[in-house]
Inverse folding.
């Protein structure tokens, strides 16, 4: 079971598949039974495919389950359409609680940092974290220690919160998900050196006014695009800028491919972007993709 913990938890990205069949097509009890059965099937598919999908991006996309879920949801969606079942997208975006939620998030992140210092965070250990590329699976508790990892989680969370306020964005359920996802992956792959170039790439892409920085899509992308942080960690700032710039237009359009039934849409877009980037690198500099030496 320990090998299935990741798909078991992250596999909830396909929750909308269950609810759509159960309640979205007005099929009554048949729909509920069908939704449960389909949920069991897609969960099994997700667990079976994750290692194969990893070979597409070689660990440079942290949201491996999101990529896998995107492919599974796409198959489900196009099958539904083949039987004449259409999905109507819905959009809900709260703007009323930004101030309250800012205070809540700030307290949580500062507590993480304080707990880290209580548990013995050290600057020398933090250097080990920021020197790593972040490629899957970079467990910072193992690379450094628990206290230093908690500090890193708080720091990357503060960077995310700061970005939202920099562009005058709203804080709601979706943005909380983005901030806390970055925070959580502060224990597995993300640190300031590798997330900032990706976020800046998204920010610069919005400047020509194709999308506004504080619009829901680009704002969510600026947080979740840090799934590509290992690329910046391995290949530098320019690679990170390019990855962020490529990720934004991709994520703005791939939702319709899977019928909006994969909640980790940015993970799917990140996997597709990395499929292109890694293929390019393999063709020109294959030796650069060899396993990195452990940080000491």
């Amino acid at each position: 079971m320990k090998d299935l913990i990741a798909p078991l938890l992250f596999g909830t990205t396909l929750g909308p598949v269950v609810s759509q069949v159960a309640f979205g097509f007005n099929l009554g009890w048949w729909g509920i039974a069908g939704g449960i059965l389909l949920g069991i099937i897609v969960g099994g598919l997700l667990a079976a495919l994750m290692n194969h999908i990893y070979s597409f991006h070689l660990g440079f996309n942290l949201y491996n389950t999101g990529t896998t879920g995107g492919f599974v949801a796409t198959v489900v969606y196009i099958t539904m359409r083949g039987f004449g079942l259409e999905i109507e997208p819905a959009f809900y975006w709260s703007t009323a609680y930004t101030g309250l939620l800012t205070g809540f998030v700030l307290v949580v992140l500062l507590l993480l940092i304080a707990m880290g210092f209580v548990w013995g965070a050290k600057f020398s250990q933090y250097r080990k974290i920021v020197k790593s590329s972040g490629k899957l699976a970079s467990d910072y508790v193992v690379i450094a220690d628990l206290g230093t990892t908690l500090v890193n989680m708080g720091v990357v969370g503060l960077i995310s919160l700061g970005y939202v306020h920099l562009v005058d964005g709203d804080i709601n359920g979706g943005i909380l998900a983005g901030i806390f996802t970055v925070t959580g992956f502060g224990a597995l792959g993300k640190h300031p050196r590798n997330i900032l170039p990706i976020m800046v790439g998204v920010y610069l892409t919005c400047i020509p006014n194709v999308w506004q920085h504080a619009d829901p899509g680009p704002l969510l992308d600026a947080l979740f695009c840090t799934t590509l942080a290992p690329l910046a960690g391995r290949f530098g700032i320019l690679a990170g800028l390019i990855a962020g710039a490529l990720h934004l237009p991709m994520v703005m359009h791939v939702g319709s491919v899977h019928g909006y039934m994969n909640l980790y849409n940015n993970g799917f877009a990140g996997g597709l972007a990395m499929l292109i980037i890694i293929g390019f690198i393999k063709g020109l500099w294959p030796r650069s993709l060899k396993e990195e030496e452990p940080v000491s």
